[in-house]
Amino acid sequence: MYWAARSGLKQAIDAYLPLAENAISGISFRPSDVLTARNGMTVEIHNTDAEGRLVLGDALDVAVTNKEKPRYVIDVATLTGAIKVALGSQLAGLFSNDPKLAAGIATAGQAVGDLTWTMPLFQRYRSATSSNFADMVNAIDGFGGAVTAALFLEKFVKDVPWAHLDIYAWKDSAEGAWLEGGGSGQSIACLSVWLQNLK
After folding, report:
1. pTM of the entire predicted model
2. What is the pLDDT of residues 115-156, one digit of tens each?
3. SS3 label, residue 156
4. For residues 22 and 50, what is the distance between their CA atoms, to the nearest angstrom?
5. Contact at 8 Å (CB) between 142 and 74?
6. Are 86 and 149 in contact (CB under 8 A)?
7. Strands annotated E in the chain
8. Contact by Cβ (8 Å): 119, 147
9. Pairwise CA distance, residues 179 & 187, whole Å
10. What is the pLDDT of residue 185?
């Protein structure tokens, strides 16, 4: 958002910053708790370490319902460790319900070396997110965690063109396009170019 404000970008952008702290306390949720999301869906907690997708789901619901229907909704999150296992640290996982939107983001990333890899919203995995006690679970056991996390988020965006960038955003040492180790700012350059190219 800092870049968008400083660059004089003509696009109108609404930004939401959902934050979660993963801390132990007397009011922390526990495995098997059932929470109600902002959109009214109920979520059974399978993994207390998958708290980020809970607040991100609520933020996505705010984005698609707060004002007039948005043209696009894009979220960027260090959501899963599974994406690093799948893609390593140099590629962001790109999930989208809109192939044209995904292609535009991927092309922008290629132009500046801030690369993405388009991942599937594989519908056969949707049943893995079902619950006997709620509308869905917040996480699954086993493989495909990045895909099922994206499928979880997809339930909050309705019919709005949406993209989810699951990023690692940390470099153990300088490598490739990243000149320093540490926090990388992964996807910022990619989305900056995408916004500049947006008509």
Report:
1. 0.92
2. 999 999 999 999 999 999 999 999 998 899 999 999 999 999
3. coil
4. 9
5. no
6. no
7. 34-36, 42-44, 73-77, 92-96, 116-118, 136-137, 162-166, 170-171, 182-183
8. yes
9. 15
10. 83
Do the bridges between strand 162-166 and strand 136-137 make them parallel or antiparallel, or are there none, so unpaired?
Answer: unpaired
Structure tokens at 117: 């890899």
Rounded Cα distance, 113 and 67, in Å? 34
Homologous superfamily, domain 2-7+30-171+181-197:
Zn peptidases (3.40.630.10)
In this predicted structure, the answer to whether residue 184 has a pLDDT above a threshold of 80 is no
Strands ordered across the beta sheet of 42-44: 34-36, 42-44, 136-137
Mean confidence (pLDDT) of the chain: 91
Helix axes 145-154, 52-65, angle to 10 degrees: 30
List pLDDT tens digits, range 54-100: 999 999 999 999 878 999 999 999 999 999 999 988 899 999 999 99
CA distance 106 to 85: 20
